[in-house]
Amino acid sequence: MRLYLQSKTAILYWYSLGLLLIAIGLVAVFFQKAVGSGLGWVGRSAQYVGCIYLLVSVLSARPKRMDVTETLFVNRGHSKCQFDVSGVKQ
Fold it and tell me: Most buried among 8, 14, 31, 70, by the most CB within 10 A?
């Protein structure tokens, strides 16, 4: 969560929440007295929701869709930058 507060990216937000819920779920399952108890179900539910949050974090990391003119403009800028970094003069 500390990294999210510094960078404000969606992937870190959902990823940290997912890991936190999975950890809480594992602790709850560890402390259950009998199989099928309420605490066990709460722990299992927390693990499932944590996995869904991890999936949301992966899906939030996808790049946004661009139209053709934006794609051409961005690619042209990247190739020019690569030549400048490598020391090749145009």
Answer: 14
The tokens for 23 are: 């950890």
Would you give the DSSP letter of residue 63? P
In a domain, 73, yes or no: no
Inside any domain, residue 26: yes
Any domain includes 84 = no
Does residue 75 lie within any of the structural domains?
Answer: no
Give me 73's structure tokens: 């403009």
Long-range contacts of 21-24 (CB under 8 A, 24+ apart): 21/46, 21/47, 21/49, 21/50, 21/53, 22/46, 22/47, 22/50, 22/51, 22/54, 23/50, 24/50
By residue range, what is the domain housing residue 45?
2-63
20 confidence band (pLDDT: 50, 70, 90): very high
In the structure, what pLDDT confidence band is assigned to residue 22 with cuts at 50, 70 and 90? very high
